[in-house]
Fold this sequence. Notes:
The protein has five helices and no strands. Helix 3 runs antiparallel to helix 4. It has helices spanning about 5-15, 25-50, 60-70, 70-90, 100-120. The protein is mostly helical.
Amino acid sequence: xxxxxxxxxxxxxxxxxxxxxxxxxxxxxxxxxxxxxxxxxxxxxxxxxxxxxxxxxxxxxxxxxxxxxxxxxxxxxxxxxxxxxxxxxxxxxxxxxxxxxxxxxxxxxxxxxxxxxxxxxxx
Length: 123
C-alpha cells in the first residue's frame, strides 16, 4: 500500500531529480502526487475524527480543517497548498508551471500536515 509519505517522497524525487523522459511534465506530476498525499492525509483525519467527512468536497473539508487540527496557521497553509497544487495539476497555456521552490514549499506544508494528523490519530 502506498502511503501519503511515499507519495510525498516521490513528488520530492521528481523535483530533485527531474528525468529527461518527463521533461516539461515533472512539475505537474510532482504536484499531483503531493496533492494526492495531502488528500489521503485528510481522509485519514476524517475517518478518525469525523467519519463521513471524507466524502465531502475538498473545499468543504478544508473549511472544517481549522476546527479539527486546532492549528489555524497550518490549516491556512494547507488550504493554500491544496489550491496551489490543484492549479499546478492543470495545464493552462497562459500560465507557467510552478517552480521547484514553489513546489517544495507546498511539499513542506504537506509534510507538516502528515505529521500533525499522525499525532492526532495515533492517540
